[in-house]
Amino acid sequence: KMAAAGGLRRAGWRLWRARRAVVRCPQYPPRCALQASAALRAPSDEHKKEPWASSSQQHFDSPPAGHQPEQKPQGPYPSYTGLGGQESEDYESEEQLQHRILTAALEFVPEHGWTAEAIAEGAKTLGLSVAAAGLFHSDGSELILHFVSECNTKLSELLKNEQKLVQLGRAEKKPIDEFLRDAVEARLRMLIPYIEKWPQALSVLLLPRNIPSSLTLLTSMIDDIWHYAGDQSTDFNWYTRRAVLTAIYNTTELVMMQDSSPGFEDTWRFLQNRVADAMTMSNTATQVQSTGEAVVQGLMGAAVTVSNAGTSRAVR
Amino acid sequence: VPGAGAALRPCSSRVAQDGINKPVIDRIIRVDHAGEYGANRIYAGQMAVLGRSSVGPVIQQMWNQEKNHLKRFNELMVAYRVRPTVLLPFWNVAGFVLGAGTALLGKKGAMACTVAVEESISEHYNNQIRTLIEEDPEKYKELLQVIKQFRDEEQEHHDTGLEHDAEATPAYSVLKTAIQLGCKAAIFLSERI
């Protein structure tokens, strides 16, 4: 009897959510969907600083709390990732539901592009109404940001595991250029299944509305790569290194869009050359600096000698 | 990849990042790092002018302590993965110019500059200690300890400056106010940029 009641409740819950998706969008301006994207930060992720997510997420989470009580008469509005406590197993937060929908939608992106159709298809596979796509913006911004965020999380995990292996002595520590090259390549390879539609995604990410979020995601990814590469700079080098790596990443990404060689080998060769250029530039800069210092010291020495010679001649 | 040799090590030791108020800690470490960096440059400027005078050893000793402070904040910056302020090159020059400029006013001028700066820094550290205690004294115990110790040492520098006739500088109050205004602006900017 309990199981049947639970099943009915679950079905009613799903229907209610789908209905609410249709009802909500006219009521709230498109801003709500933007804030939905803000809430899409992966819950277990701790590496990234995403200040843009935190404040708008809280703002967004409070309106739904008003709708919950008649469904689940529980306490304050929590964000559960799993079983436990007095919550029933399929109680999930708005953010988790959107997360699941977008993850499911990714499968349909190669076919439909980064659009509401892909989201609708994704919602269908979860047993939700296609109207769930109304929760999101029609240009697929949230889907793309979600995808980028997921890729960055995967990259962090990858780099963290690599670091563990090195710490345990089970792997060799890579030289810096090889590390950077491998990290950028690993990250760009995640685009391969979606490469056809990626130019569209890039243009959406460059919309003024999306720039704060996409910039934050980009900078935190680059910072992560440098962190695992072992960067410990506390001076202006911190900025120089990140700027250089960002340039390498962006240009390689653009090359990849145009690359039709087998296995993207042209892209990886381009990446290798850019990283090598960066290393050369840095070595040259160090050399120029030490040469400059030596020259200055030489001049100072010459000046002192000349002035000493002058004074000794004057004394005589 | 500039300076590839010096600042790269196998893997950086990290402080556990869960549960700390990242924006607040970021600001605190960033501004303190900038402050110690600037203080270093101020003393360097003073030494460049007054290094061979009678107060040279006094300034040198204070400078050595500041160097330790900077070293400690470098370590904390890496541990907490904090971004340094963009204005570092600017503080580099401004600090040196301030130190050398006040030293050119004489030994008392240099001491007046020290008094002004150290007073600003002590007050600033006290504010930070209050903030951290309000947040969670247990969680930030290590950081609190560091800041308290540094505040005490900066207070010592302040007292040393007074002992060396800082107040006898011509236009002492004007100089002090100007320098402290500059410090306030520097703190404001370094926290944010």
Structure described in brief:
The complex is a heterodimer of chains A (316) and B (193). Chain A is mainly α and 316 residues long. Helices cover 69% and strands 0% of the residues of chain A.
Please provide a written account of the structure.
By secondary structure, chain A is mainly α. Among the domains of chain A are: 93-138, no CATH class; 140-288, Tetracycline Repressor, domain 2. Helices cover 69% and strands 0% of the residues of chain A. In chain A, helix 4 packs across helix 6 and helix 11 (237-258) runs antiparallel to helix 12. The longest helix of chain A has 51 residues, at 265-315. The N and C termini of chain A lie far apart (118 Å). Helix content of chain B is 74%, strand content 0%. The longest helix of chain B is centred in the N-terminal third of the chain and has 29 residues, at 22-50. At the A-B interface, helix 7, helix 8, helix 10, helix 11 and helix 12 of A face helix 1 and helix 2 of B. Chain B: Keywords: Iron, Membrane, Metal-binding, Monooxygenase, Oxidoreductase, Ubiquinone biosynthesis. Chain B: It comes from Agelaius phoeniceus (Red-winged blackbird). Chain B: This is COQ7 protein.
